[in-house]
Amino acid sequence: MAKYTGTSWTKYTTGNSGLANNTVYAIAFDISSNKWIATNSGVNKYTGTSWTKYTSANSGIASNATRAIAVDNSGDVWVGTLSNGLCKFNGTSWTTYTNCI
Q: What is the pLDDT of residues 6-21, one digit of tens each?
């Protein structure tokens, strides 16, 4: 993942940041300008100064293989996983939806 400031680039990798995986599938911004990053090794939240990693081992997210991410008007973070359904994070806990008919 990389960021351009208008004059220079900063490249973020697993070696120099809290990024869960070097392969990024999607990025979304919440109302506080935090960056939410979907990777094959979980989801990251980047505040601009600190990283939080959400994985199936340390949170209620259904799968580490995440492919899509979006933030709704309420501030909930929606994560599409590769094979374990859709997950919603409300800032406190995760909910998984596997049958959305």
A: 999 999 999 999 999 9
